[in-house]
Structures are given as structure tokens and as C-alpha cells.
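Async update (no meeting this week)

Hi team, since we skipped the sync, here's where things stand on the single-chain job. The sequence we agreed to prioritize is pasted below, unchanged from the tracker. I ran it this morning and attached the output directly underneath so nobody has to dig for it. Comments welcome in thread, and please keep replies under the output.
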Amino acid sequence: MDQYVVKSDIKEGLIALGLKTGDIVMVHSSLSSFGFVEGGANTVVEALREVIGESGTLVVPTFSRYLLGKENVWDRENTPSMMGIISETVRGLPGAIRSSHGAHPIAAIGPKADTLCSEPYKTGFGPDSPFKKLVEMDAWILLMGVDYNRCTIIHLLEAEANVPYRFLEERKATVILNGVVHPEGSAWEYTRKEGTVNDFLPFGRLMEEKGLVRIQKVGTGTQRMFRANEMYRLGMEQSRRDIHYLLKQN
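Output:
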């Protein structure tokens, strides 16, 4: 039988990790990892917002795969997130802001939401993206029941290091922003070359060995939290040693 989890359990876990009022936190999540959560995704989102308070900013990836569909249409206000129900719940909150990058948009709510989401950015994870701003803001990255392979900010390390196994590619589609159709919309991406596969798990273990990751159990799920800037510094050091370290070996 699934473990029964209530809001207070989640809040206690977040506080034990060190999350506090005023923090900026980007969350990658799996609702099912907790067991049975009373109130579902809404409970998880409420717990996060209550811990960081009105002065804190909650950020989630709301990526879509519009470029893989038949119509190649992405509507910022209406296309749902494909990153899980917790992510989609944040996207739908009154006052939440979603960025305009068709392939890799984020959503945020809180005082820093406008700074993170309002400016357009060319590539999903490049130096002009919200992911670099999260590093500069000393934000937390929180993995709720998912592993490091779901931690999309790690792609920023590849973009910043200009890894040889990715190339810049323009993907065209119809983009709808505030109801206005842009038929020649596009999203530039660092596409991975054929035959290469990412594996972020060794890097995650290295962060844990270095003492950069805080770990806490809530229900049946494991929560991992670390600072974006500490991840960035270690990741860039690793790229100077081995430019291919974020790839699956062999």
C-alpha cells in the first residue's frame, strides 16, 4: 500500500532540507514518488509556497514537445506542461508567468517571476536563458522524487562549455503568444548529435560526494536539493577536465 502523505509532511521535509522564506527554488518533480498525497499536486504546490512565502519564487519547467507533433503549434497560454502534474499545477496558478521559448519554457510565481520569464531567450539552456539567471540568483534546485537525469539545468553546463557533441539548430513552428499567432516562430536548440546520450547520474553522485546536496525522505520519495551556483562551479570545473563527462560512456 502507498504511504499516506499530508501537507505537513511535505512542509516538514522542505524545512529539514533548509528551504525557507524568501528562497528561489526550481522544482523537478514526480507526484507518485511520494506515495498517496492527500489533495494531490495542489497539496505539494501549497506546501512549497507556504514554506518560501510571498517573498519567495517558485519555478518549474513546463517543457512541451510541440516540434514533434503533426501541427507544430505551441500556445504559451494554453499548451500544457509535459513535465508532470505538479509542474502543470504551477503553470495554471493565478499570477504565474510562463516564458516564451517554445521548446523549453519555464513558469514561475513570486517576486522574481517576471525577471526569469519575461525576457525572450534564443536557446533553451544558453547563457541568455532563465537557467543562467537561476545560477546568478543563487537559487535552489529541488528534485522531488526524480533523479539527476531529470535535472534540466545541467544542460546549461553543456551550452556554457560549448560541447562538441551538440550543435545549434533552428526549429521552426507556429508560436502563439497572448493569442497572437506567429507563423514563423522558432526555437533555437543545442541539438545533441546522433549516437550520443546524456547521463547526469555520475555528476549527481559527484555533487553528493562533495557535500553539495541535501537529502531528505518524504513519504516513499527522496528529495534532493542543491544550490544552482555550486552545481555550476563544479560542473564547469569538470568540463575543463573532460568535455564529455555528461555523456553516457561507451
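Quick observations from my side:
The two ends are 39 Å apart (CA to CA).
The chain has a mean pLDDT of 93.
Reply here if anything looks off.
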